[in-house]
C-alpha cells in the first residue's frame, strides 16, 4: 500500500488489510510505504490513528518508510492511492513486469475508474473517515480475490 507520506492513507490500508488477512487466516505479506521521505520513522498521523482506533483497527505501531525499488521484488501487487503516487512508483519501475504490479487501490471497488483516495492531510476530520470507508470497501474486494 503506497501513498505520499506513509502516515495517513497507506498505513490505514496496511493496518486494515493486515487485520482482514489475519481474521481470514490468509498467508499474505502486507506492508506500506510512502513515495516521499518526509516522515520516515514516524508513526501515523494522530488524526488517522484516532479514526483507525475508533473503527477497531489500531495502527499506532506502524512506522513510515519510503518506497524502494526492491519492493517490486518483494511484492506481487502494489496499490497506490492516487495518480501522483502511481506516477512516482512507475518512475522507479525497471521493466514491464514491475509496471504491471502497480494498481490504483480504488480500482478494486470501482474497476477501471482510476478513482483516488484523497489526501486527508490538510483537511478536516471527515476526510479521515472518508479515507477509512474507501479503503475498507476496496480491501474487502481484495480479500475476496485473495480467498479465491
Ligand atoms: P499520506 O498523507 O500521503 O496519506 O500519508 C500525507 C502526509 C504528509 C504530507 C502529505 C500527505 N506532507 O506533505 O507532509
In short:
With 148 residues, the chain is mainly alpha-helical.
Number of domains: 1
Structural class of the helix and strand makeup?
A: mainly alpha
Percent of sequence in beta strands: 5-15%
Overall radius of gyration: 14 Å
- The geometry reads as globular
Uncertain spans = none
State the CATH class: Alpha Beta
Helix/strand order, N-terminal first: EHEHHEHHEH
Largest sheet geometry: 2 strands, parallel
Q: Please state how the strands of the largest beta sheet are arranged side by side.
A: 1-2
Number of strands: 4
The span between the termini is 21 Å
Q: Give the CATH topology.
A: Rossmann fold
Helical fraction: 40-55%
Can you say what the CATH homologous superfamily is? Response regulator
Amino acid at each position: 500500500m503506497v501513498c505520499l507520506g506513509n502516515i495517513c492513507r497507506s498505513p490505514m490500508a496496511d493496518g486494515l488489510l493486515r487485520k482482514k488477512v489475519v481474521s481470514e487466516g490468509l498467508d499474505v505479506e502486507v506492508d506500506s510505504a510512502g513515495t516521499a521521505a518526509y516522515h520516515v520513522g514516524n508513526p501515523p498521523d494522530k488524526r488517522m490513528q484516532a479514526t483507525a482506533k475508533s473503527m477497531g483497527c489500531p495502527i499506532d505501531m506502524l512506522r513510515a518508510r519510503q518506497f524502494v525499488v526492491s519492493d517490486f521484488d518483494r511484492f506481487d501487487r502494489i496499490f497506490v492511492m492516487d495518480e501522483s503516487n502511481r506516477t512516482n512508483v512507475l518512475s522507479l519501475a525497471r521493466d514491464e513486469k514491475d509496471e504491471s504490479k502497480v494498481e490504483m487501490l480504488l480500482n478494486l471497488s470501482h474497476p477501471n475508474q482510476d478513482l483516488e483516495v484523497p489526501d486527508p492531510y490538510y483537511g478536516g476530520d471527515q476526510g479521515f473517515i472518508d479515507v477509512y470507508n474507501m479503503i475498507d470497501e476496496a480491501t474487502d474486494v481484495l480479500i475476496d480475490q485473495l480467498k479465491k
